[in-house]
Fold each of these.
Amino acid sequence: MERSGVWRDGGMPRTARLASGEAAMDAATKRRWGDQMFALLAANTTQMADREYVQPVADYVDPGHAGRERDLLFRRTPLIVATSDELSEPGAFRTVDIDGISAVIVRQDDGSLRAFHNVCRHRGCRVVDAECGTARTFTCKFHSWVYGGDGALRYVPMVEAFAGMDRAERGLVPLPVAERHGLVWLVPTAGQPLDLDSFLGPMSDALAAMRIAEAGVFRFEHFAENLNWKLVVDTFLELYHVPHLHTKTVGRYLEGRGAIHEQLGCHSRFIAPRKSFMPALKDVPPDQRDISDHMLVINRVFPNAVVIWQRDHVEFWTATPDGGDPNRCMVRLWLLSPTKVVSEADRVKWEKNWTIVKDTVRDEDFPMACTIQKGFSGGAQDHVVFGRNEIGLHDFHRALKEALAAA
Ligand code: FES
Ligand SMILES: [Fe+2]
């Protein structure tokens, strides 16, 4: 099961094919983005909201607010918990903890997925301890009740001790699960509806363009952080800090301006130019500009995921509250690679990608976010301000506010 407090390598290089930049987005979309980014960079600016956004600090530290988020967002909303690739074979399973809910997701023989509360129907033990694997049955360690991968209770030792029990009614409790575009979504409450098409809306096409279904997981890690889960998402939603905080890492190849932002229902995406954008494209006629190599696309998937497209690969992050404490969260990171057999030369490249992600976010963004969390707890101020240039943050927090108000 998941451990906290450490960065842990939970994956091995795996099967993978990923779309080239050419294929990932359609030409009309890239042309539109190219024109917009070119105009912004030429004017030495970035896309701006009409006004600044005032964000209450209490949303990050108040236990009552955290409780509402848990009940309304992290119990009722579809949450990305795995890739389809991680559950490719019949019997493949993964366990996941979502702020107190332990679930196990299993690939069925007919190719569908099922998910269950990872809780024994005898006296309530966790049934599956491993984070992932392949199994035909799951045996609870306490008294060896045996469940099938379909959740059915298959065997009870000394069954005569449970004379009135109907085994058919003692299977693992099912949870709603669905997959789309190579990603797996879970709703951690039994009986909740799960309609991914209406939930994703316009984000569905944006995710399809990432072509994650064709990719594999090069590496997956999870780790605990002492910060509110929203600060993890906030990290990825503005470029303003890039030339200031990341001078030695991503600041070397990413612009601090020129980004464009698109709201997609309760989700959004944010397109950021690389430093190569202007040098490569400034003398190219607009209809001949190919921006694929000179941008990255940051998809924010409501409520808690960020799926980042970077030319030849995708990385994605999720953050969930942890332990019912607004000051803690569990972060999960997947790096998808495009090759089935990772050659030595390719391995160097993917290890380097992984190192860049870790060095930047773990060593630079999250320590900063931890100081924010402490500052929020210290009562210095009751609100912070998102600048007109931090438009991705406006949209994220507005979407959260609307979802909590509507529930
Ligand atoms: S608690 Fe699982 S078999 Fe007893
Ligand atoms: Fe950053």
Amino acid sequence: MSFDLAARLAARRAEHLYRQRPLLESPQGPQVVVDGQPLLAFCNNDYLGLANHPQVIEAWRAGASRWGVGGGASHLVIGHATPHHELEEALADLTGRPRALLFTTGYMANLGAVTALVGQGDTVLEDRLNHASLLDAGLLSGARFNRYLHNDASSLAKRLEKATGNTLVVTDGVFSMDGNLADLPALAREARAKGAWLMVDDAHGFGPLGANGGGIVEHFGLSQEDVPVLVGTLGKAFGTAGAFVAGGERTGSFIHPAPPAVQDKS
Ligand SMILES: Cc1ncc(COP(=O)(O)O)c(C=O)c1O
């Protein structure tokens, strides 16, 4: 037996599955330079043009001068700094939720939320076309894992009948590869009828959707009871990087304890 990467790479190339990274040689924006070629960009997620916005750049400059640039420690030690906390409070206000928790990436937000909320003896039900990070999170949680047909509330309802333990229903808000919207009112109705929680990853909805850019939950006018766990990423319409999980006071405390100074808004 040998670990023959050369043969595996050759096989991948032969199947036209070998992927290469195009080299971006300009800032993100509608007009970019990729591999030396000026192009119009239809494939980035910088939906509001903030990734290279002068005010965002200035805020980063001012932040770096005031706070430095290193994390220094984990949030549970002494890495949870005032600007992190202020951003969590601003994101809680934006989403109309009592708490929001910051994560370094959307991948980590999904892994953190799902694995904190469900485990052995519980059930996690996911849309077949969910983002890979949600599927990985469901598998890693140790809960009974099942996928329902894409955006199909009746397929979800059938699986909810067989669910055991705490049950988390998980869906993208705007599906990342197809761009269609989850039928959240129907999914929320099914979940609530069975006492399950609905978690929505609205990475692509925050910014473009909703009268105030509040994403798919604002678009459909849904409440926190409809969508108890709401995930957003900051690397798309928000123009920077990172992610957050927004929810109730207890949900926030369960996923991550609040620092002592936080106001109890429950
Ligand atoms: C729906 C969805 N969730 C999560 C992520 C992961 O976000 P991040 O790149 O911040 O890890 C993405 C990124 O493409 C996404 O499209």
